Amino acid sequence: MEINDLIQNRMFGGTMDVLKRAMDYGSANQQVISGNMANVDTPGYRQMSLKFDEELLLAEKNASNTSLTRTDSKHIAASADSTLAGFSVETKKTTGIDMDSEMAKMTKNNLLYEANTTLLTKKLQALKAAIKGSY
User: Fold this and answer.
1) Is 92 helix (H, G, I), strand (E, B) or coil?
2) Could you list the residue range(s) of the whole structural domain that residue 106 is in?
């Protein structure tokens, strides 16, 4: 077993990867929400959001990069939505932004990001204590 495999699988397990992905999602979500709020007075602007359900399925399957492939001309083409930090960004069909809703989303996102940061800190403290032998 290589040292990298040992460190990744034994010391960190999947926890670090999940926390990293969750924090990346929170950061990207913050950018999307901020963009919506910044464009509240822009005529014709369509609200954007990250596709959480699809990201959750990808995380459960432990897949990082999957793409759709059309194997037949009768298949529906993949969505033309953009991506941000590897996450799919969906543009809503209707125009207009509800600032109260966006503020609530931003607050929720901030709390989740802080919770993930706390979990990551605790994980690293536990590893540090184990290494020092003071656990």
Assistant:
1) strand
2) 3-67+78-132
